[in-house]
Amino acid sequence: MSAQRIRVIGVGTAGAGDDALGLEAALILRSRLPRTVDVVSDTTGGSNIAALCKGIDVLVIIDAVKPTPTFPPGAISAWPYPAMRSAIDQSLCRNTHSFSVTEGLALAEQLGVLPKRVTVFGMAGENFVPTAGLSATVRLRLNDLVEFVLQRM
After folding, report:
1. CATH 3.40.50.1450 given to domain 6-152
2. Model pLDDT, residue 128
3. For residue 29, what pLDDT is reported?
4. How far apart are CA 7 and CA 83, in angstroms?
5. Full strand arrangement of the beta sheet holding 38-42
6. Shortest CA distance to 22 belongs to which of 151, 125, 110, 132?
7. What residues does each domain of the chain span?
8. Could you write out the three-class secondary structure of the chain?
9. Fewer CB under 10 Å: which end of the chain, C or N?
10. What is the pLDDT, as a whole number, of residue 97?
11. Residue 74: predicted pLDDT
């Protein structure tokens, strides 16, 4: 039996506050995971996801999440796709000029390239202001998110 082909995608926008969370997590994971795990950063907001699904068995996506009263800044969660499609779509931050992560996953599904196992990890952000770095809350919890992902891979 061959080893599973795994890809981790950190989704985000550099220089847009906590929206860079997925990119920062991918940088850390790249140094912590075996080289057999493909770790990539994606700044397209979801439009590249279908292309990135080709040829893999497991997909992990990491992205910033909108905070709510019950999911405050720094809160971390994981959602299996497609089972939790609605929760993912409602939680993830959305760029008005691109596909959302769930739209990218739905396209991969339609094209028949969606991996057998897909999990979306998110942390609620606090600040999504352009030109700002990660908020103190998200920066403080970034390693916790990385450990959360590693434990569930």
Report:
1. yes
2. 86
3. 98
4. 20
5. 38-42, 6-11, 58-65, 117-124, 76-81
6. 125
7. 6-152
8. CCCCCEEEEEECCCCCHHHHHHHHHHHHHHHHCCCCCEEEEECCCCCCHHHHHCCCCEEEEEEEECCECCECCCCEEEEEECCCHHHHHHHECCCCCCCCHHHHHHHHHHHCCCCCEEEEEEEECCCCCCCCCCCHHHHHHHHHHHHHHHHHC
9. N
10. 41
11. 96
Interatomic CA distance for residues 86 and 132, integer angstroms: 29
Closest alpha carbon to 10 in 48, 60, 53: 60
Of 145, 108, 122, 103, residue with least CA distance to 19: 122
pLDDT < 70 stretches in the chain: 1-2, 84-98
- Of 82, 94, 117, 115, nearest to 47 by C-alpha is 94
Question: Tokens 């795994």 appear where?
Answer: 6
Give pLDDT, residue 96: 41
Alpha-carbon distance 131 to 11, whole Å?
17
> What is the 3 state secondary structure string of 59-92?
EEEEEEECCECCECCCCEEEEEECCCHHHHHHHE
pLDDT, position 44: 84
